[in-house]
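This is your field. Pick holes in the following sequence-structure pair:
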Amino acid sequence: MRRDLVSLIIPNFNGIDLVESLFQSIINQSYKDVEIIVVDNGSNDGSIEYIGKFQNVRLIANKRNLGFAKAINSGIKQSKGDFVFLT
């Protein structure tokens, strides 16, 4: 039985503490048919390096802060899910 793929779009700007706890929540959940897309808006707090450690996370690294809407839209454009979940 095929389960629907859910695309999790996570915008980030210097939110390494939030990303760490969010990733733990995603790992601990029971629904595993997810793709994780993090759109980083020019963070300088170590977020990019931390996110880069996860092979199952797609990282879109913007050089500067493009704002929430542009970050989300760029993540959605690259998503492959049947459903999109914005975090």
In short: The chain has one domain: 6-86. The helical segments are 16-28, 47-51, 68-78. The domain at 6-86 is CATH 3.90.550.10 (Spore Coat Polysaccharide Biosynthesis Protein SpsA; Chain A). Residues 19 and 86 are 14 Å apart (CA to CA).
